[in-house]
Amino acid sequence: MGYESQIQFTLDTICPWTYLAKKRLDKALTQLPSESSVTFKRVYLPYQLYPDASEEGEGKYEWYKKTRYGDEEKMKKYTMLMSAYGQAEGINFKFGGTVANTLHAHRLIQHYQEAKGPDTADKIINSLYQQYFEEERHPASDETLLRAATEAGIEKSEAEAFIKDKREGLMETKVLIRDQVGNQVDSVPRIVIEGKRRDVELEGAKEVDEYVKALNKVIKESS
After folding, report:
1. Which of 167, 125, 166 is nearest to 149 (CA)?
2. Mean of the pLDDT values across residues 87-99?
3. Per-residue model confidence as pLDDT tens digits over 147-174
4. What are 203-209's contacts with CB under 8 Å, separation 24+?
5. From CA 85, how far away is CA 34, in angstroms rounded?
6. DSSP bridge pairs for 186
7. Which among 32, 44, 27 is positioned nearest to 91, based on CA atoms?
8. In the chain, what are the domains?
9. Quick check: pTM over 0.90?
10. Which residues contact residue 206 at a Cβ distance below 8 angstroms, ignoring those fewer than 6 apart?
11. Do β-strands 38-46 and 3-11 pair in parallel, antiparallel, or remain unpaired?
């Protein structure tokens, strides 16, 4: 009988490092031995890097320059570095658009992860990342969320009703975010791969081979 290992992936939808980590983890999962008795199930957990950000938001480039890097030269170095990392993973990073509160993006992910499963949540997250980082769209506007939901196969009318009801699933999502803070999470991505003997925890965006090594460790210890 096989063993199912849960991969807990803690993310924020406006964190470029979580986008890289997800792309690399996706690659790593395709490189595992086909005869493995272990199956991996991803569960996405919410975290907000900037919980005090407004829902309307502000310009992303200037915000990053002001709050994270301090001047134009350092900001240019950051954009060059992220562009190179992204290109290697098939991500076309752009640096315009809006930084804004991600609570309702997390609410959407968590609701449909619970209602329709991790594969649907995975597709929603992929769309949110692409829209925000590659198309410079608002990270949690109704339009962005609706597109993410429909691209994940959710009926438009169903998704619209959920997105418009800002209170549905809100408290549950806030509790999950507080739980991550209570678990000493202070940055993302954070990946925990459950094993029979021990869990493997990875913080920050690792290289593909590091994820492969961690996954194979769980497979080996579970046999």
Report:
1. 125
2. 97
3. 999 999 999 999 999 999 999 999 999 9
4. 204/17, 204/21, 205/17, 205/18, 205/20, 205/21, 205/24, 206/21, 206/24, 207/24, 208/24, 208/27, 208/28, 208/31, 209/28
5. 28
6. none
7. 27
8. 3-222 (3.40.30.10)
9. yes
10. 21, 24
11. parallel
* DSSP secondary structure of the chain: --EEEEEEEEE-TT-HHHHHHHHHHHHHHHTS-TT-SEEEEEEEEE--S-TT--SS-EEHHHHHIIIII-SHHHHHHHHHHHHHHHHHTT------SEE---HHHHHHHHHHHHHH-HHHHHHHHHHHHIIIIIH---SS-HHHHHHHHHHTT--HHHHHHHHH-TTTTHHHHHHHHHHHHHTT--SS-EEEE--SS--EEEES---HHHHHHHHHHHHHHH-
Contact by Cβ (8 Å): 152, 120? yes
Give which of 116, 103, 113, 71 is closest to 167, Cα–Cα.
103
Whether the predicted pLDDT of 96 surpasses 70: yes
pLDDT tens-digit readout, 12-42: 999 999 999 999 999 999 999 888 889 999 9
Please enumerate in sequence order all residues whose Cβ is within 8 A of that of 88, keeping only pairs 6 or more positions apart, or say none: none
* Residue with token string 């499963």: 117
Distance CA 223, CA 214 (A): 15
pLDDT band with cut points at 50, 70 and 90 for residue 183? confident
Assigned token pair, 60: 């992303």
